[in-house]
Every structure is written in C-alpha cells, then in structure tokens.
Sequence to fold (205 residues):
Amino acid sequence: MNIIWAVVIVGVLAAVSVTALLLVRRRAPEGGFFEDGDRAAGVFGVLATGFSVLLGFIVFLAFTSYDQVRPQTATQQSAYDKWLEQTSAREEARRDRVHGAVGVIPTTLWIVLFFIAAVIFVFMLFFADSGERAVVQGMLIGSVVSVMALLMLLLYALDNPFHSGVGGLKPVAMERSLRMVDEALSAVQTQVRLPCDGVGEPLPS
Fold:
C-alpha cells in the first residue's frame, strides 16, 4: 500500500464525511435529532462493536494465512524419500503463495464490512446538532470515518501482502536461495541456462 495514496484516500473520505455532516447540520434541530442521547450512544456502541469484532476476525484470518508452510525433517529416511518430501513441501509452499497472492478475505466479508461502515456513517449523520460548533461536529464524524478508512486500508494491505509498498512481503528467502545457487555454480565453474524468463514464459530452445 502506497503511503501517499493512503493519506489521500483517508483525507478525501474525512473531508466528504465532514461536509456531509455540516450540510445535515444546517437543517438539524438544536440538540440533534435524537431525543435520548444515551440511547443513541448505546446503539452506536453496538454498531461499532460489530465492526470491531468483524475487523479482528478478518485480521486474524489474514495473519494465519501467512504461515501455512510447516517444514519437516527426515534425516533417517532414504535419499529418495527425502526428495519426495522436499518436492511435496515445494508444491505446498507454492499453493500457499498463490493463495496469498489472490487474497484470503472472502468477498462476502468485504461486503458485510463495507455495509457496517456505511451504516455507521449514516448513523453519525443523525448526531448533527445545529447548537454545537461546526468544528466539534466535524471532528466528531471526521475522526470516526478516518479510523474506519485506515482500518479498511490495513485490511486491503493484509489481503494483498505481495506488493512493493510499505509492509509488503518481499521474496527474501527466494533471493537468498538464488544467491546460494549462483555461488555454488560459480564455485564449480558451471553455467546453467534457465528454461524460462523472469515472468515464467518458456525460452526458445
């Protein structure tokens, strides 16, 4: 996730939400639309709790998908069995990398999360109070929307871990393995022609 784009997105969403609340505030009665502020705050707490619980579940789901590969040792087995085990581990690791690349958060969870966020936003508009200062009103909804936007961007970054931005997973282990292979080939003075290019397309023979 690009930090600049994240700041722009959060800023735009906060500005839109503050503008929407100030527009509603023009027609809002003094004291707000809710006659019982404590009851309205309780309902808002339920909405925020639902959003937080779902958010925590999705973060847990995203993090547990990063460590699916479990190495196995078989020093007492024959060389053939060891080769089969390593082949199986490579295939499993590749499946996990593909799984991580395409995202681990189901679309239904994204839909529910966006729906809850929209409900919270609309609910916040009903806290518009013409008797309260505009700065306070803007801070009220701007802070809530900014936090929700940042959390959604965080989930997007966790759902797409392989990127070049801040927090992206880098192929450190693969690069180290390639360096070791190059050093070994250089030590035995051997050159190997790769069967494919950098994107996996086969090279002409």
Summary: Confidence is low (pLDDT under 50) at residues 70-77, 98-102. The two ends are 39 Å apart (CA to CA).
